[in-house]
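Form 7-S
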Amino acid sequence: MLRKITLVAMSLMIAFAFGCAKKQTAKTGASFAKSMKGAPEWAYKGCSAFSGEKKKWICGVGVMGGTNNLAMCRDMATARGRQQIAETMNLGFTGLTQDYQQTMTGGAAYGKAADDEQLPSRVAEQLTEISLPGTRVEDMYFSDNGECFSLVVLDLHALETAISSVSGLDAGIKEHITRNAEKAFDDLHKRLQRPKSGD
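Output:
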C-alpha cells in the first residue's frame, strides 16, 4: 500500500514538474519573441541569415546579456562573435590541410607533410591567429531586454592575403589553402547551418 502511495506521489510530482516546464518554455518563447521584435534576421537566425557580398565572408554572431554596462555588453558580444569565427576557421583550415596531405604522393615533401599527424592542428592554429585581426563588426543590435548582439565578419579576400604573407609555412600548403579557401569555407558554413538530427 505504501509503495502504491509513493508511486502515485512520484507520478504527480513528475506531471507537475513537466507542466511547469511547458509553461516556462512558452513564457520564455513569448518573452524572447517580444524582446526581439524588429530585430535584424541575423540576430535570431545567426549566420544563416547573412551572406555578405556573394558569400565572400566568414561570419560569427556573439550575444551578451545580464549587465548594465553598455561597453562591456558590446565588447563581450563582439568577442564571442570573433570566437565563433575562430572556431569556423580552425575547422576549415584543419580540413584543408588534411585534404592537402591526402594529395601527397611521394618525394621529399611526403615525409615532411603527409605523415605529420600534428600538421593540420598546427597550421589551423597559426592561420587562425594571424587571420582574426582582420575581423570587423558589420552590425549590432540591442534587444529590449538588454541583450547585445554583434555580427562579426571576415572578408575572405583579406584572409587569403593574410595567408599569403605568412612566413615559415610550406609553400604547397599555402597555395592549396589560398586556392581552395572560398569553396571550403562556403561548404563548411552550409554544413554547420544544417539542422541537427533530433532538432
